[in-house]
Design brief:
Elements (H helix, E strand, L loop, with lengths): L15 E2 L2 E2 L5 E2 L4 E2 L12 H6 L9 E3 L7 E3 L3 H7 L37 H19 L3 E2 L8 H4 L6 H19 L8 E5 L5 H9 L7 E6 L20 E5 L11 H4 L5 E9 L1 H12 L12 E9 L12 H6 L4 H10 L6 H6 L20 H25 L2 E7 L10 E7 L1
Length: about 425
């Protein structure tokens, strides 16, 4: 059965005019609606789905678009299509400097970048878990838990239509803004840079928390175009300052070349919520190493950072800004990537627990790998791996003159990625 035939029992029939569908008759099961494109005359389907369904037999060949294979075009019109395709790359902004925040491999063998715990023996993994536990005990220890809630989100939290997922995001955003306030970073006269901004929700609530202030700037950085952006709430004369968006990868972002930052020397605060993997390291390197310097050499002041951490399994040695700490511990690219791979144990608790046989106890649990480590033990080691990686980042910021805290900012029930770095210039 084709996708177009798999309709729910209560689907809405297509509107027709004189017996002819006004829109394509292809039903998209995933979106639970019909395709919205106009049908080709006499087929009932749009150009793309008419070919997919075999309704139109045409000698002209359709091929996936090389810019975005989710859609197709006629092969003989490819050149024209690429000129107007919505997925075509735009002109790079002036602040684009290729690979400026990518770091370096320090001469490490590139093959060490591909290794994971699936590629090595159980004995090597078990030996490394013992190293991780000792290093964690010696350098990190127990993290403080400090789950705050800023009052700016109190009304939003009370809205009955917000479901469980929305409530989790509200609590996380409220805590991050609470930590901004606690660190003295929520005030007038600040340029706020949100990295990996997405819809811009964090900046939106920061602005509302500072609605009585008139001298703040908000710059949102993301490599993708995003729908339903919260920027739209900040376009009126009485809705606070406009949000400036910069569409570029953090990997290539040079703060010193952002025009709006060159023209004033307001202190800068960097914020981010769940920047994925290496994007965290690129953000920190961007803030520490690329700020604007005026003609006298005065550097833009990065006064603080509040960053919720995420996806440590997607970090890599080249971009990692905490290499000095790992080298100090006698660890290199190979060990780093194995530790990065083990961080997934922390966020796969449900999967690991399911490996126990029904009704089985810890004493009867048996796993074919890693010396019969219990799911709870593997989860704990996973968190230790995450915190070791973050400790390297903490030391990197300390080397640049910051007081840094590594904390739990949210409950595990709200997110398994519940750790954050809070840094303030000393």
């Amino acid at each position: 059965m084709s996708e177009s035939e798999e309709k729910p029992a209560n689907y809405t029939a297509q509107e027709c005019q004189n017996g002819v569908p006004e829109r394509c008759s292809f039903y998209m099961k995933k979106k639970m609606r019909y395709c919205k494109l106009e049908p080709v005359a006499g087929s009932g389907y749009c150009t793309i789905h008419a070919h997919d369904m075999g309704v139109i037999q045409n000698k002209r060949k359709r091929i996936p678009c090389p810019l975005d294979p989710k859609h197709s075009c006629y092969e003989d019109l490819l050149k024209n299509h690429l000129k107007k395709c919505n997925a075509r790359p735009g002109l790079n902004p002036p602040c684009y400097v290729i690979d400026i925040n990518s770091g370096s491999d320090d001469g490490e063998n590139s093959s060490n970048y591909q290794v994971s715990i699936r590629d090595v023996s159980d004995q090597e993994v078990l030996a490394l878990t013992k190293v991780v536990t000792e290093l964690h005990k010696g350098f990190v220890g127990e993290l403080d838990k400090n789950c705050l809630f800023h009052e700016v989100l109190q009304e939003e939290k009370a809205k009955p239509h917000n479901g469980a997922a929305a409530q989790k995001h509200i609590n996380q955003q409220a805590s991050l803004i609470g930590h901004l306030q606690k660190a003295g970073l929520l005030r007038d006269g600040i340029s706020y840079l949100e990295f990996g901004a997405g819809k811009g929700g964090l900046s939106h609530w920061i602005q509302l928390a500072l609605s009585q202030c008139s001298n703040n700037q908000y710059i949102l950085i993301d490599r993708s175009s995003v729908r339903y952006r919260m920027d739209t709430y900040h376009r009126g004369a009485e809705q606070g300052p406009d949000f400036e968006r910069i569409k570029t990868d953090i990997r290539h972002l040079h703060l010193g070349k952002i025009a709006s930052l060159q023209n004033d020397m307001r202190p800068i605060v960097g914020v981010g919520k769940h920047l994925c993997g290496s994007a965290t390291d690129m953000m920190l390197r961007c803030l520490m190493e690329t700020p604007h310097r005026d003609e006298s050499g005065l550097k833009s002041k990065i006064v603080g950072i509040v960053l919720a951490l995420c996806c440590h399994h997607r970090t890599d040695w080249q971009t990692y800004c905490g290499k000095a700490f790992f080298k100090q511990c006698g660890l290199g690219a190979r060990e780093f990537h194995l530790i990065s791979s083990m961080t997934s144990w922390a966020t796969c608790g449900g999967t690991l627990a399911a490996e126990k046989s029904p009704g089985g106890s810890d004493s009867t649990y048996n796993h074919y790998r890693y010396g019969n480590l219990l799911p709870e033990e593997r989860e704990e080691i996973g968190y230790q791996c995450k915190q070791l990686i973050d400790h390297g980042r903490l030391l990197y910021l300390k080397d640049h003159g910051y007081h840094v805290q590594q904390i739990y900012y949210a409950e595990k029930e709200q997110t398994l990625e519940n750790m954050a770095l809070v840094a303030k210039c000393t």
